[in-house]
Amino acid sequence: MTIKAHTCHALPKSGVYLHFDDEVPAWTLNIQKEASESDLEENHHLENVGDIIWLTSLNILCCPYCGQQLPGLDSVDKASYGYFQHNDFSRWN
Ligand SMILES: [Zn+2]
Questions:
Q1: 70 alpha carbon – ligand 1 mean position (Å)
Q2: Where are the domains of the chain?
Q3: How remote is the CA of residue 90 from the centroid of ligand 1, in Å?
Q4: Buried residues in 29-42 as b, exposed as e (16+ CB within 10 A)
Q5: Reported pTM
Q6: What is the rounded distance in angstroms from the CA atom of residue 25 to the CA atom of residue 47?
Q7: What is the CA radius of gyration of the chain?
Q8: 23 confidence band (pLDDT: 50, 70, 90)
């Protein structure tokens, strides 16, 4: 069985999603800010509504919205687990 995503009723409708990478293995929580009309007016580096302004990714063991333990992590080394990064695209061009 391949695990690719976790969906639950508590997850926000947009801007937040969970992704499983079975090569690591790791579950990643991605939080992204998408440009709105007013963001385009304030920042001339942005071109389109929906462009990603920033993206934060972090490894998680449980879904922070429903509390469910995520599958596929039985063999993971929890001492070195917890990678995270933040990307800012607001000054890209
Ligand atoms: Zn959940």
A1: 9
A2: 16-68+80-88
A3: 29
A4: beebbbbeeeeeee
A5: 0.82
A6: 35
A7: 16
A8: confident
Angstrom distance (rounded) from CA 28 to CA 16: 10
Segment 30-46, tens digit of pLDDT: 999 999 999 999 998 88
Instruction: Yes or no: say if 62 and 70 are a contact pair by the CB < 8 Å rule.
Output: yes
List CB-based neighbours of ion ligand 1 within 5 Å.
8, 63, 65-66
Quote the tokens at residue 15. Answer: 């801007």
Rounded distance from Cα 9 to ligand 1 centre (Å): 7
CA angle 60, 66, 68 (to 5 degrees): 60
Three-class SS string for 64-92? CCCCCECCCCCCCCCCCCCCEEEEECCCC
Q: How confident is the model at residue 2, as a pLDDT?
A: 66
- Quote the tokens at residue 11: 């997850």
